[in-house]
Amino acid sequence: MSGFPSFSKVNNSTDFISVIRSGIPKKALDNLMDNTGITVPEITKIIRTSDRTLRRYAATQKLNPEQSERLIELARLYSRGEEVFGSMEGFKTWMDSAVMALDNKKPKEFLDTSIGIDMLMNELGRIEHGIFA
User: How far apart, in whole angstroms, are the C-alpha atoms of residue 87 and residue 55?
Assistant: First the structure.
């Protein structure tokens, strides 16, 4: 997924940890929102901050490690979803649809926790391999 120029030197999980610890610029968050259609109210819930605080960030100001980690998790999820569904639009449609395997909840409802994102990654794997619950 585009929009993460600071990820160009990320080759493995150890590199991701370094990026998380040093923080990701708010500009990367803005790019993720533009690419995925995640709204400001949704992202503030996901990264656990207020709309007002988020607006005060300069584009180059770095998010804290917890927020940076969540941003990387989202980027990886949306990148994987785009790969599995063949397009970002297809994945976004799935994210906004009730899914039987998720107790008829929308996948977007699980973005506020790491376990929820892991569940969605697992579900994408099942979809990719034709396993539907």
Answer: 30
Flag whether 82 is in a domain. Answer: yes
CA proximity to 70, closest of 104, 115, 129, 106: 115
The DSSP call for residue 102 is G
Q: How far apart are CA 76 and CA 111, in angstroms?
A: 12
User: Residue 15: is its pLDDT beyond 80?
Assistant: yes
Q: Which residues pair with 25 in a beta bridge?
A: 62
pTM greater than 0.85? yes
Each residue of 78-97: pLDDT tens digit? 999 999 999 999 999 999 99
Residue 44 · residue 20 · CB < 8 Å: no
Domain count, the chain: 1
